[in-house]
Task: inverse folding
C-alpha cells in the first residue's frame, strides 16, 4: 500500500463526489438534446460540434486547484479544493433543469432511463479505473497523485457525451428488439381490428391531408389516425397500441420518408389498401441525393397497395403522375387544380378567395359540386382536394365530404384568416390603435417559396383596401436563400401597396427584389423587429378595410442558445 | 371548530365531457368560495377517460399543465354504489397487504365524505348519470336529481315538456344520427328534407345544436344549403342527436338564475344579457376564453368572465318580471334543485319571450348573478345553503320505507 496523507485522501473523495454529481446533472442535460436528435449518435455528434456544447464552466475552474497543487500542501489545499469544487457544484446545479427548461423538455421515458443508467455505469467504471491507475502511477508522491486526480476530473467532465454515445450504441440491439416487439404487438392489434388502412406520403402537405381525410371519413365511419405529425415507424406503432379501438373502420396513416425503404418498412407495419401521394418535391434533397431517389422512396407506398386497391395522386405534379402510370391500381385517381389538364379525375376550379375563405367548384365522376372552405392558398386546396378524392373513393358521399371541408378550421399561423379591429395586430400599450376593421392573414409558420407565393396569390385576390405585407423573408434555404427571397419580393412588389421588411437576415435580398419589382421608395419600410412593425401598422398606418399578410416569423433564430 | 367537526364536501369536476376544462374552473372557483370554517373541501378530479383522483395538488391550476403524468402524485378513488359507505374508496394498487392469501386482502381505505357537489358541465355530470350513482350509493348530493338533470340536458325533450305546460318555445325538430345511415335509406339529403319540411323551419337561417350538450360546442348557424350540410356534420361530431330551430333575426338573450329556497318556493336572481364579441351567437371563446384568459398570465374565469350586462337598466321591467315568472315556473316544473341558469330568448320583432334552454349545473354556478341580486347572495352563502338543502333531501329520502320483506318469492 502506498501512503498518502489524510488531507490528500479527503481531497480525492471531494473531487470524486463532485465529479459524480456533476455527471448526473450534465448527462441529463445532454440527454435532452440527445432525445431531440432521436437517439442518433451521428446527429447528436453534429449537434455537439456545431453548438460547441462541451463544458466551459467546470473545466476552467478545476484548473485553479490543479495549478495550486504544485505549491500548496495539506489542509490549505483541501480548503481550496472544497471552495472551488463547491462553486463548481453550485454553478452546475444552477444550470437549467432539462426536465423543465427549453421548448422540448426531456421526457424521462424508459429508454432515457436505460441510457442514463448505463452511461452512469460506464462513467463510474472509467473513473474507478483511472483513479486506481493514478493511485499507483503517482508512486506515493502526493503532488503527482493530486494533479492526476484533478486532470482525471477535467477529462471525465469533458467525456460526458462520450458515455452517452457508448451507452446508446451498446443498448442499440436491445432497443431494436424491444421496438420490433412493440411493432409486432401493433401488427397484432391491427390484424384483430382490421380497419381499411389509407397511407399518406409526399414531400409537402401530408399532415394537413391526413387531418382533413380523418375528419371527412370520420363523419361517416369511426376512423383512427395518428395525431399531429406523427409519421415514424415507432410513433405509429405507439399510437396504434395506445389508441386504436375495435370500432375503427378506417385508419389514416401518415408515412414519412426518411430514407429509401422507410415507407416500405412502414407498409409492413400498416399494410395499406389505399394511398395518397401528395407531391414529390425537393424537401430533404440533401438526405436523398436526387429527386429520382425521392421519387423511388415515395413510390414504395404505391407499390405496397394491392392491385385491387386505391391510389390517389396529385395530378399537377409530374412525378406523382408518373407514379400513377407506373403502378396503376384498380382505382387510380388523379386530382388537380390545373384547368388545362384533361387526365384529372377530380378537378377544382372557379377558385375565389373572399373575406371569409375560399369558394370553389369540384368536378368528380361527371358531377360538379360547389364548395367552400376557410382554408386558403393553392397548396392547402390541393390537400383539400386530395382528401376529398380519397374519401369519395372509399364511399363517403361527396356532399358529406364537402360539409366537413366547410367546417375545417385553419391551423394557427398557417395562412389563417382573421377579421377584426385594427387593434388585433399588436398590443399598443395604451396608445389607441387606428379605428376600423382589417383582415389579417397570418402565415407566420415556417415559410417556404411555394407557401410564400401562394400567400401572395391569396393577398392579391382577397377583396379589400390596401394590401400590406410584413415579412422577415425565408430562412434555411441554403445557397438558394438570396435568390428565393429576392424572387418572392419581386412578386410581392406587384401585389402589395406597402411592404414592411423585418430584421437584417434577408433585408438585402428583399429590398433588391422589391425595387426590381417596381415598388416605389415609399412603398416599403424597414423595421428591426416584428413587434415594432405591427405596432406601427396598428397605431399609424392601417385604415379600415386593409389586408395585412404576415409571412413568416423568425423567433427561433434567437432562441435555444446552448450553454454548458 | 376542529377539523373533525367540519363537514367534508367532495367537489367533483372535470369529467368525460367536452366541457371538461370549464368544469375544472367551476370546481376550483367553488372550492375557493367555500366557507372553510365549517366545511372541508375534498377536490375530486375526474379525467377525460373517467378515472377519479383526489389530492390537494388539484387546487393549483398549474397542476393541470402536467397532465397526464402528474396524476401519479394523486390518490385514485371511486364512489362505490353501495349504500352506507358514504365516502370515497381509495383504489391504490400498492395496498394489497402482506400475503393476501393468508391474511386476506386489506379493505381499501375510505375517505369520508358528507356531501357531494357535482361541478360538472355536460355529459355524464349534468345529465343525471353521476346523480344516478349518488342515488345508488345513497349519499347526499347538491343539485338536481336524475330526472330533472336529464330532462334539463336534452334540449328537445325539455322544450316539448315545457311547451305542454304553456311555456312558449320556438319550433324545433330532433334528428337522430341513425338517419344519416345510407344503409337504412338515410343520408344528408334525407335529413335536410326532413328539417326543411318541419313547420316553422321552412326557411333559412336555421340554428343547429347537439341535443344534449351545452357550452356552444357543435353549434352552427345555416344561412344556406351548404352551411346546413356543414352544421349537421358539425353537430353530429359531438352528439348522436341534434335539434334544429329557426334563427330569429332580431333577438336578445336574457338569462336568469333560479335557486331552491328554504321551503318549496324557489328564488330568482336578477337577469343578465350576455354580449357576443362580434354580435351574433355566443361562441365557446366568448363564453369561456375571452373574459379573462386571453392575456397570458391572467386566469380564465369561465362563465363568470363573460362580457355581460347584469340587470340592464334599459330593459323594459315587464320583460324582467316575465323572465322571473318563467324562471320560477320552469324550475318547479322540471323539479330542479340547487342552482340553475335559465336562458330565455326575446324575439324583438314579435315581442315574445321564449324558453331556450336550462343549465342545471351552470358555469360558475351563476354566482355572479346572485352577487348583484336583491338581497345579495354571496357565493359562500349560496354554497352553504345548497349543501344544507342537499342534506335535508337525503335525510328525507332515507326515511322512506324501502323494505317490505320477501313475500312474492316465497309464496306459500
Result:
Amino acid at each position: 500500500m502506498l501512503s498518502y496523507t489524510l488531507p490528500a485522501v479527503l481531497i480525492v473523495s471531494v473531487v470524486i463526489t463532485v465529479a459524480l454529481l456533476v455527471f448526473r446533472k450534465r448527462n441529463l442535460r445532454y440527454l435532452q438534446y440527445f432525445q431531440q436528435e432521436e437517439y442518433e449518435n451521428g446527429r447528436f455528434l453534429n449537434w455537439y460540434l456545431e453548438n460547441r456544447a462541451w463544458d466551459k464552466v467546470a473545466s476552467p475552474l478545476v484548473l485553479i486547484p490543479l495549478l495550486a497543487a504544485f505549491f500548496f500542501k495539506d489542509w490549505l489545499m483541501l480548503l481550496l479544493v472544497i471552495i472551488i469544487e463547491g462553486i463548481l457544484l453550485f454553478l452546475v446545479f444552477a444550470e437549467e433543469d432539462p426536465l423543465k427548461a427549453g421548448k422540448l423538455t426531456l421526457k424521462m421515458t424508459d429508454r432515457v432511463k436505460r441510457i442514463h443508467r448505463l452511461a452512469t455505469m460506464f462513467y463510474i467504471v472509467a473513473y474507478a479505473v483511472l483513479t486506481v491507475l493514478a493511485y499507483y502511477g503517482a508512486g506515493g508522491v502526493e503532488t503527482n497523485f493530486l494533479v492526476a486526480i484533478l486532470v482525471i476530473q477535467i477529462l471525465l467532465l469533458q467525456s460526458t457525451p462520450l458515455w452517452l454515445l457508448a451507452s446508446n450504441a451498446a443498448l442499440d440491439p436491445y432497443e431494436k428488439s424491444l421496438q420490433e416487439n412493440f411493432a409486432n404487438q401493433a401488427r397484432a392489434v391491427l390484424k384483430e381490428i382490421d380497419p381499411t388502412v389509407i397511407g399518406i406520403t409526399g414531400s409537402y402537405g401530408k399532415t394537413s391531408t391526413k387531418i382533413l381525410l380523418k375528419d371527412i371519413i370520420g363523419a361517416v365511419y369511426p376512423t383512427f389516425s395518428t395525431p399531429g405529425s406523427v409519421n415514424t415507424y415507432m410513433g405509429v406503432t405507439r399510437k396504434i397500441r395506445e389508441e386504436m379501438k375495435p370500432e375503427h373502420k378506417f385508419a389514416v396513416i401518415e408515412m414519412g420518408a426518411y430514407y429509401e425503404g422507410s415507407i416500405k418498412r412502414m407498409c409492413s407495419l400498416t399494410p395499406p389498401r389505399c394511398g395518397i401521394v401528395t407531391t414529390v418535391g425537393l424537401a430533404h434533397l440533401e438526405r436523398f441525393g436526387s429527386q429520382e431517389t425521392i421519387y423511388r422512396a415515395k413510390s414504395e407506398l404505391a407499390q405496397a397497395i394491392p392491385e385491387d386497391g386505391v391510389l390517389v395522386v396529385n395530378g399537377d405534379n409530374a412525378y406523382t403522375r408518373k407514379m400513377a402510370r407506373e403502378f396503376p391500381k384498380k382505382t387510380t385517381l388523379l386530382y388537380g387544380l390545373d384547368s388545362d389538364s384533361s387526365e384529372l379525375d377530380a378537378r377544382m376550379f372557379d377558385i375565389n378567395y373572399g373575406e371569409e375563405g375560399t369558394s370553389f367548384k369540384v368536378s368528380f365522376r361527371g358531377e360538379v359540386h360547389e364548395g367552400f372552405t376557410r382554408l386558403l392558398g393553392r397548396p392547402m386546396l390541393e390537400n383539400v382536394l386530395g382528401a376529398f378524392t380519397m374519401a369519395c373513393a372509399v364511399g363517403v358521399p361527396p356532399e358529406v365530404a364537402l360539409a366537413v371541408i366547410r367546417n375545417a378550421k385553419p391551423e394557427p399561423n398557417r395562412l389563417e384568416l382573421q377579421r377584426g379591429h385594427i387593434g388585433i395586430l399588436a398590443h399598443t400599450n395604451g396608445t389607441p390603435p387606428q379605428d376600423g376593421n382589417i383582415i389579417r392573414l397570418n402565415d407566420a409558420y415556417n415559410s417556404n417559396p411555394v407557401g410564400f407565393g401562394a400567400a401572395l396569390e391569396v393577398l392579391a385576390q382577397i377583396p379589400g383596401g390596401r394590401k400590406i405585407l410584413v415579412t422577415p423573408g425565408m430562412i434555411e434555404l441554403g445557397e438558394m436563400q438570396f435568390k428565393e427571397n429576392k424572387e418572392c419580393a419581386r412578386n410581392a412588389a406587384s401585389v402589395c401597396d406597402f411592404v414592411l421588411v423585418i430584421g437584417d437576415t434577408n433585408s438585402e435580398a428583399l429590398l433588391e427584389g422589391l425595387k426590381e419589382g417596381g415598388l416605389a421608395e415609399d412603398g416599403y419600410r424597414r423595421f428591426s423587429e416584428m413587434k415594432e412593425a405591427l405596432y406601427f401598422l396598428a397605431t399609424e398606418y392601417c385604415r379600415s378595410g386593409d389586408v395585412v399578410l404576415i409571412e413568416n416569423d423568425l423567433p427561433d433564430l434567437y432562441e435555444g442558445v446552448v450553454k454548458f | 371548530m376542529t377539523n373533525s367537526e367540519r363537514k367534508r364536501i367532495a367537489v367533483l369536476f372535470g369529467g368525460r365531457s367536452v366541457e371538461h376544462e370549464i368544469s375544472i374552473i367551476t370546481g376550483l372557483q367553488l372550492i375557493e368560495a367555500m366557507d372553510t370554517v365549517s366545511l372541508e373541501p375534498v377536490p375530486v378530479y375526474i379525467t377525460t377517460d373517467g378515472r377519479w383522483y383526489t389530492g390537494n395538488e388539484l387546487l393549483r391550476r398549474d397542476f393541470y399543465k402536467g397532465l397526464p403524468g402528474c396524476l401519479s402524485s394523486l390518490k385514485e378513488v371511486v364512489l362505490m354504489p353501495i349504500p352506507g359507505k358514504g365516502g370515497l374508496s381509495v383504489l391504490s394498487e400498492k395496498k394489497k397487504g402482506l400475503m393476501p392469501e393468508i391474511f386476506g386482502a386489506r379493505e381499501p381505505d375510505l375517505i369520508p365524505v358528507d356531501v357531494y357537489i357535482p361541478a360538472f358541465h355536460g355529459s355524464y355530470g349534468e345529465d343525471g348519470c353521476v346523480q344516478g350513482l349518488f342515488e345508488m350509493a345513497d349519499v347526499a348530493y347538491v343539485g338536481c336529481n336524475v330526472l330533472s338533470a336529464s330532462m334539463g340536458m336534452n334540449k328537445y325533450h325539455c322544450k316539448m315538456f315545457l311547451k305542454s305546460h304553456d311555456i312558449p318555445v320556438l319550433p324545433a325538430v330532433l334528428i337522430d344520427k341513425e338517419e344519416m345511415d345510407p344503409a337504412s335509406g338515410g343520408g344528408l339529403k334525407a335529413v335536410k328534407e326532413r328539417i326543411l319540411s318541419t313547420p316553422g323551419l321552412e326557411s333559412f337561417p336555421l340554428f343547429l345544436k347537439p341535443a344534449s350538450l351545452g357550452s356552444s360546442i357543435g353549434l352552427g348557424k345555416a344561412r344556406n344549403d351548404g352551411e346546413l350540410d356543414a352544421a349537421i356534420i358539425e353537430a353530429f361530431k359531438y352528439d348522436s342527436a341534434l335539434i334544429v330551430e329557426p334563427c330569429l333575426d332580431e333577438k336578445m338573450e336574457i338569462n336568469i338564475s333560479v335557486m331552491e329556497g328554504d321551503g318549496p318556493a324557489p328564488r330568482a336572481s336578477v337577469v343578465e344579457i350576455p354580449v357576443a364579441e362580434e354580435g351574433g351567437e355566443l361562441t365557446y371563446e366568448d363564453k369561456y376564453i375571452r373574459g379573462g384568459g386571453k392575456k397570458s398570465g391572467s386566469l380564465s374565469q369561465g362563465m363568470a368572465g363573460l362580457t355581460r350586462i347584469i340587470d340592464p337598466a334599459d330593459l323594459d321591467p315587464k320583460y324582467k318580471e316575465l323572465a322571473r315568472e318563467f324562471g320560477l315556473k320552469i324550475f318547479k316544473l322540471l323539479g330542479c334543485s340547487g342552482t340553475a341558469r335559465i336562458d330565455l330568448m326575446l324575439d324583438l320583432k314579435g315581442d315574445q319571450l321564449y324558453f331556450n334552454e336550462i343549465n342545471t349545473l351552470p358555469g360558475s354556478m351563476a354566482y355572479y348573478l346572485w352577487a348583484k341580486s336583491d338581497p345579495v347572495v354571496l357565493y359562500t352563502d349560496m354554497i352553504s345553503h345548497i349543501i344544507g338543502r342537499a342534506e335535508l333531501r337525503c335525510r328525507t329520502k332515507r326515511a322512506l320505507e324501502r323494505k317490505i320483506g320477501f313475500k312474492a318469492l316465497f309464496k306459500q
Notes: Chain A has three domains: 6-173, 194-407, 416-558. Residues 556-560 of chain A have pLDDT under 50 and may be disordered. The radius of gyration of chain A is 30 Å. The interface with chain B takes residues 218-220, 370-372, 397, 399-400, 402-404, 406-407 of chain A (CB under 8 Å).
